[in-house]
Structures are given as C-alpha cells and as structure tokens.
Amino acid sequence: MTSGVSGSVSLSDAVTRYMAQLSPEGRNRSQQELNRFIRWLGGTRTLDTVTSHEIASYPERLGNATDLTQRLENVKAFLAYAKKEGYTVTNLGVNLRIKKSSHSSNGDASSRAMAVEKAHLTREGYNALVAELESHKAQRPNIAEALHLAMADKDFRENAPLDAARDQQAHLEARIRELEAILKRVEVMDGSGGADTTRAGLGSTVVVHDIEAGEEIRFTLVHSHEANLSLGKLSVASPLGKAIVDRSAGDEVEVVAPGGVQRYKLAAVEASHN
After folding, report:
1. Residue that finishes a domain, picked among 129, 154, 189
2. Which domain holds residue 137?
3. Long-range contacts of range 134-139, CB-CB < 8 Å, 24 or more positions apart?
C-alpha cells in the first residue's frame, strides 16, 4: 500500500497510477471503459468527493449492453485499487450492481411484462437473437444428460454436479423464455418505408463528436437487446442515445452526468442498410 496518500488524489491521477501497474493486456482491456468512467464523473474531481449513490447510478448509463458485466468489472477493479491505496475510505465498487431481470427467480413474470412492449430490432439483431435461441435449445439434450448422470448418485445431500446441472438448466430455460418472448413481439427495422433518413433513429449509423474530449465516436443506434458498445452498437434507451434520436447532422446535444454536462455534436447520420 502506498503510504501517505489521501483521498485528495484526483480521479485522473488515480486512474493513471492504476493503469501503470497493469500488464499491457490489462491496460488494453481497461483503458476505454475507465476513460469513459472518469469523463462521466469528472476527471478533476478528487476521490473523496465521489459518493456511493453516484457509483450506483453508473450501470444505468451503460444501458443493457451485452458486455455490461465485463465493463463494470474493469471499473470495480479500479475502485478496489483506490481503496487499497487509501484514496477512498471504503471500496466504492461494491455499489456497482446490475439490476436483476428475467434471469432471476421471477423470470416468468419479467417475460410476461416484456411481452407488452414491441421490440424494434435491426435485421442483424433479429438474426443474432434467432441464432442464440437455436443454440440454447440445442444445449437441452446435453444438460438433460448431465442431470441424468448426476442423479445416478443417490446421495443428493452433497451432490455438487446435480446442483450445478440444475442451476445451468434453470438459467438456460429462463433465457430461452426471454428470447421467445422478445421474438414474438419483434418488428424488424429494414430501413424501408420512406422514413426520414436525415435524422438519427433506430438503425441509423451516426458519428458523434465529443466536444470536451475532442474525440469522434461512430456507432449504430439499436434496441437495448442489441446494445454492445464494444461492437459499436448504442442503445436508443441510453442517455446519449435518447439525446440524439430524431436529431440531424450539425445538431449539438447535452447529456447530464455527475461530472457535469457533457456536450456532443452530431457530425453525420447514415440511413440504416439492414
């Protein structure tokens, strides 16, 4: 532990020190998400001013990205480091939690609730969900066989393989029900129908200029079920997604974050080609 270090260190400095002690692979894996994190909170802020409530709200900024767990793990690792080095009194990373959805015990109720909302997906997103559903269904015989073999051991009191197989089966069936519910209410976006292609909308590929950071980001606006920023897919339900929907090239938008208001300029809008 570094001696004599207090919580007065800034977020930017703390991240720089953290990155310096990582392996090259670790830096590549963590840098992009940590840059987003400190830009969201405000890099000049000191760690002792960051609240647990602010940290708890960070997952909402990321929407329903499919790599959400891994992205939050990068931030959690940094916050654990900050506590270890004495920059914070507590480990703020414990406040980073993903809200439970249909994978929890109330999966059936969640699936029924989702059925009310129509899901607009790109053709690529629709095909990906169909492929995922088929893949999960194909796993059923293997899990059934694992259950059969585990149940052959009559001592159920300490049968770890049986517990693991049952847990795997429960998660698989919950995801299958979720996918089937989504696909029943899906409407595929194919870019036809005479929609206004000069404004950003579901399926549009946009180029956004981060005015403060001086960076340009290119991504496609998608439904939250398709969101994956590592693949350049931004949910229309995310704060930035909401801000740029129905905007045209040249428009400037603002997104409120704990570090202050972030300003973006919509540099280009391309029609969907799905």
Report:
1. 189
2. 107-189
3. 136/172, 136/175, 136/176, 136/179, 137/176, 139/172
